[in-house]
## 1
Amino acid sequence: MDAKEILNASQLDILFEGKNKAYGAYALRKNYNRRIELAMFGTGIIVLLFVGSTLMTKSRNIEPPRLMQTQPVHLTNYKKPLEKPRKIPPAPSSEPPKMEMAKLTVPRVTDDNLVKPDEKPPKQTDALRVGPVTQHGLHADGLLTAPPEVTGVGDHGKGNGVGGAGNGQEDYNKIFPTVQVEARYPGGPEAWKKYLERSLRSQIAVENGAATGIYKVVVSFLVAKDGTTSEVQVVSAPDPDFGTAGEAVRVIERSGKWNPAIQNGRVVKYREKQTIIFQVE
């Protein structure tokens, strides 16, 4: 290839100068750009055909929207269910409930000639409680309720009949030595135990030089109707007490209000006794 041909020849012709152009590599490289253009054109036609067929298929399957048919609701036919009337419980009565009671028949010694043949003594039944008067009420065993107030029992109100206390009335303002329900610490024994563990200085005997042993202090105190405590007294204590008696009194005085004692369904004054034990190991 001379100089003129080199100027007009392409790079591919210069590369394959003197080589076998019929081998195939020359033809592949020379027509490479043409083949790429044909391939791109064919791929574009295929993509267009695929997209067009897909859109046509979807357009055939789409149905126009349908309006929902609704039925009218007539609110005038709706009736609110009737509510059951609430039962209002009766207000609690301030007076204690009455109990079924039969008047005690006081036996009297009478001459046989004065007793009428057809006269029979009144019956006394175990189903009723015996009391100073006859009244109708509840049949409840163990019910704590106040006795009926009477001005006299037995001897026409003179106060010397059966069960009378001078004037036939019980004095609920006095201090009762025995009661039906004793005073107790609020919450019961478990709460009392926790209070002692929290408030009692259990090592006071050790601090005062007490020997190993158990030191028991018995304290009595007055529990009023409102549950307040007063008149705390030491009933018994070891000698010497090594400060245990004073500590027991202090704990009782700071114990707060107690649940008062109950007698005949009424709260009454009561002198409670409490034992406090100090153990020195």
## 2
Amino acid sequence: MTTAPTAGSGTAEPGGGTPRRRAVVVLVSIAMVALLADLLTKHLALLSLDDRPPVRLLGGAVYLTLTRNSGAAWSIGSDHTWVFPLITIGVVGWIAWMALRLRSLPWAVSLGLVLGGALGNLVDRIFRAPGYFVGHVVDMVSLFDPYGRVWPVFNLADSALVSGVVLAVLLELTGRQRDGSRIGRDDGKRAEATPAEAEQRGRA
């Protein structure tokens, strides 16, 4: 007698591959796309916005202005730049650990965005001036004000990271788990199925 694979079990499915393998592939793919897009936009910003006044777009809703940030948002922690690479390395390690039991594609998207954004800024911290692990992050997008007084100047890596975190919060609020199960709904289905399963077993 064979038993059907349970949700989050890592058993191969008809589509090919295991749920965990597909989720990890999605995570890594999204992270790489976000990282490459961030590096490209930073390169273009350095080529076209350096020594140039802010570029006004969408009637002033968006400005393109090149800045180099040694800290976090609004230059918070700019005197302790070396701390940020360590935090990012910790985040990357946490995502790698989470991938060991990851079977949810929405969570793969979320973690992929966070990973890509974290790696994009980590590259700046490690390799850009003024030195290794104290490099300044290249930012170029400002909302409603060219100098970041309304909202901090940011880059594509920041956007990916924030989008990933927001998606993670939504997944948590809706009970979606990283192993592919869903709190509440899956429990209810199991509870409803129990009498039928018991009756079927009794007939057997």
## 3
Amino acid sequence: MTDLAKRSLLALAAASAVATLVGCGKKEEAAPAAPAASAPASAAAASAPAALKIAFAYVGPVGDGGWTFAHDNGRKAVEKEFGDKVQTIGVEKVPEGPDAERVMRDLVGQGYTMVFGTTFGHMESMLKVAADNPKVKFEHATGFKTAENLRTYDSRTYEGAYMAGVVAGSMTKTNVLGVVGSIPIPEVIRNINSFTLGAQSVNPKIKTKVVWVNEWYNPPKETEAATALIDGGADVLMQNTDSAAVLKTAEEKGKRAVGWDSDMSAYGPKAHLGSAVINWGPYYTKAVRDMLDGKWATGQAWWGVKEGAIDFVSVAADVPEAAKKKLDEVKAGLKDGSFVIWKGPIADNAGKPVLEKDKVADDAFLGGIKFYVKGVEGKVPGEGK
């Protein structure tokens, strides 16, 4: 481990007992000592700009095989694209709450001038740190609050969920699907609903059961929830959690499942029907290029299939050709804008219309979904309060 990596690790450990450093290869080598005043620096060295120092705060471990793994792949894409123009660091297990603020302040103190927070619960911490450090640029994944030096970005994961539904609805034998939900915020509820809509587009008999674990990453709880869904009759599972536990459980119990955020096929080869993946590389590359070119500006970005940020990959060989064809049609339509997932008529699971016939949901509508669509059983936690 280099001197700089050691110093980073020690500082971050002091900031958060659960924060650990992700190795970044040669990008984290300590800078050579400054030459003595009497030693003339070469013209090339004098004119070479310092590398842009970029930090990524991860909510989970890189080895989760899902959400954080996908973000770290995006970090690696930045290094590959910009080489010695950048120096990156990843910090694992930065929790949602006060610890996140301490970690981010420490990163700024180490000279990182671009900081990415990768979970909804980092939002308030980033706002506070951004307000105190106007020269540093902050980027927050999945949030909705911005500042002059803080912008938000997200991926249209509901597009991947819909495609997963098309496959799941084609493969179920019980007509009961199961979803392991993380935290009942609009982002996750939207994915559950989109998964159900995709399944119903090929199989109107579909019902979806949901078990919430109220955490992003907790493999034992995810396993327990997946088991409960299978015991309740679900034979195809999806998740909106960060580990591969749901797919592993399906593999062990002879059921089927889809991967989430990253290609999870290796975790359950027999159970795996395909994976709804996020490619953060395109956005991270754009954001860093904005910084290097002096064009960074606050705002909000929400990228999907059209921008190359969402895909459904590694489709199982036994998925029917009709479902594969439908999947290809959906992808093509999302890419060129000819297909819209959230288009009426759509009703909630109590029968109340939420989108009238032919009406298309805008991003404001999608960002505030707090209901289950028809076919999803139960109530959204907190609904009616």
